[in-house]
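Below is how a single chain appears once it has passed through the pipeline. First comes the sequence as given, then the structure the pipeline wrote out for it. We keep one example in the README because the format questions we get most often are answered faster by looking than by reading.
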Amino acid sequence: MLAACLLLAQTARAQDDSAVLTPSPRLKPAPSTDAARREAPVYLRADELSGQPNAEVQAQGRVELRHAGVVLRADQLRYDQAEDLAVAQGKVRVTFEGSSLTGPEVQLKVQRVEGFAREPEYLIGVTQAGGRAERIDILGPATSRVINGNYTSCLRDGSENPDWVLSAQQLDLDTDAGVGVAEGAVLRFFDVPILALPRFSFPLSDQRKSGWLPPNLDFTSGSGAELGVPYYWNIAPNRDATITPSLSTRRGFAVNGEFRYLEPDFAGRLNLDLLPYDQVYKDTRYWLTFDHTGKLDSDLRYEAQVERVSDDQWWNDFPRRHVALTPRLLPLVVAAEKDFGPPALGAELYVRTQRWQVLQAPNTMQAPFDRAAQMGVRSSGNLQAGLQYAIEAEANRFTLPNNPGYPVGSAPSDGSRLHAQGWINRPFRQPGWWVTPSVLFNAASYYTDEAMPDGRSSASRIIPTFSLGGGAEFERSTEWAGRALRQTLEPRLLYVNTPYVNQSNYPNFDSAVKDYSFASIYSENVFSGIDRVSDTNAMTAGVTTRLLDATSGVELLQLGIVQRYLFNEQLVTETGVPEKRGYSDVLLRGSTRVLEPFNLEGYLRYSPSIDRVMRTILGMQYAPGPLRTLNLTYRYARDISSQVEASWQWPIYQPEGMPQRKGWDGSARTCGGAWYTVGRVNYSTLDRRVTDSVVGLEYDAGCWIARMAVSRWSTGVSEASTQVLLQLELVGLSRLGSNAIGILRDNIPGYQLLRDSRSASPGSAIYD
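Resulting structure:
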């Protein structure tokens, strides 16, 4: 095979001595096993070839050797076929799967991809980073050893030093394992040593590896400066743990641990923050979370969700660490469910317990009931003649938490409840319209530990409901500004009739008024839960229109309006004051993407009885391109809140016409130097103060990124906590400092990483 290739190359050169050298056809795909690589042919061409094809060949001038994805180019080359040894000199360049090295001399066992290079420069394709070395030993297709070399992703220009560089006596690179290991390592930033360790490892990919992660440095008003050094333990492909000892200037020593697991039949996460002795609080403190889901077989599933803290002040001292939606109301939920009966029955048996930890200090709040025990069965499916049904029967034991927050003598009684609820309906649907009559019922029996307001300790009731819902869907083709569109018109009606049943003497364990919205106004009951059912004789009417792109189906515009009319007074209300017959508040909503790159959304609740707007949400997002997003939101609830929120990520300086420097891969790259502003500010117009904010700057230097931000959030009417975020990202190596990216992502809709494709994953470097 080699002889044929040589003959073809010599013939072509004889025909046109001035022909331009073009790349040879590349093998696709490159052989992946050693045996396959040895079977692959060797291609060699040059300006001049001499020697014996089956023994030793000399090549001079624009030499190119290819074998199984390896490409070697040089001024001159000697290839010993018997020894499979290529000795290249001059301007030598070797490339393989995106990685490359250049130098004055390279010796390479071609089929085994083993050898060495003297005084080379190298590039790792997956990280687009590299450096210079005294010598590189090539140990295989994916492994190499750098002797007395350095590593950086920064561009170079003559003798100018890179902004950051990792120097090492020995640097082992394994692209298959995705790990680089430096021995005798010193990390410099602008020639200032910022880290020196006898052994330092870092990622060449997203693969996991046990070891010390980059240190975390946080500054908060509550804890002062806090330094944590995480250790990552890659226990198995489906299990890992991170242990972070830390020390803060105000609170002292702490340790955080996280354990994650993913098994075929269960998965979960366990977190523990432990302060053996908080120097401010003068006691031991902790925060524990546990999430677990699993199944014992295909029909039996279970889950657990736990969040607990050591004391009532935790939410105020460490507000950013909570996972609960309400930081002062922490859940403990354990549940299991099992399918039974034929699949067509859709029957399920379930058990559950739900308990709350209520953090009362410094103010009080009325806690919900614990669901000490819950057991039920539910079923849904289809019946004859097109009928559909759903039914649920359940038993509950309700108790108040240890710290319920009620004034002395006013706490409601613990108790038990048996209830059943369900519905049966018959949908009628045809293209363009639908009608669904339904019959519902809600039955409950109560047993309280103390007497109810009417003197009884047990009571029962059953409440039926009839509803009739229907709607239509009209559609037409139209055009606007030369764009083919499709417009819909979707009217909808719902009539509900529920008789009045006096429920004032019954306990209320789990019911609350639903938020007034487009979803809740089309429901039969204005209350959630079981214990309250609104008496209703009302008709709800609404209409929605949409404008869709006729080609892609993307919704460009939506407008909707809905209102309910009460034919009779509604006596069962949240406050106990009857709601008069007549028209309810009007709901309007709209959204549009017609004015790209703007995205506008709006919601309005208007009361015709008092001629006032009760609630408004207006939002705008402007995203004209990458790394440019501006969000404005106004939220208003009459007599409750009025807030303006702005969030953004926007360049404030991007250099144009900047000089290009030579990259480690030999290509010309434009330097960085761009500044971006990022942030979110929430301002209360009623309180005339900023309630929460994150404001900062990002600087992209090309091979490193700096993030600086200040986060401030309210923990009370006159109390706030502040955090200073400082993060240095060395592109291709790691991120050091605070978790600024996590905070910015959580607070800025549409936030993007400056160099997502080239950056290392957060906390990815390992120190051994």
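The helical segments are 2-15, 34-39, 314-317, 740-747.

See the next section for the split statistics.
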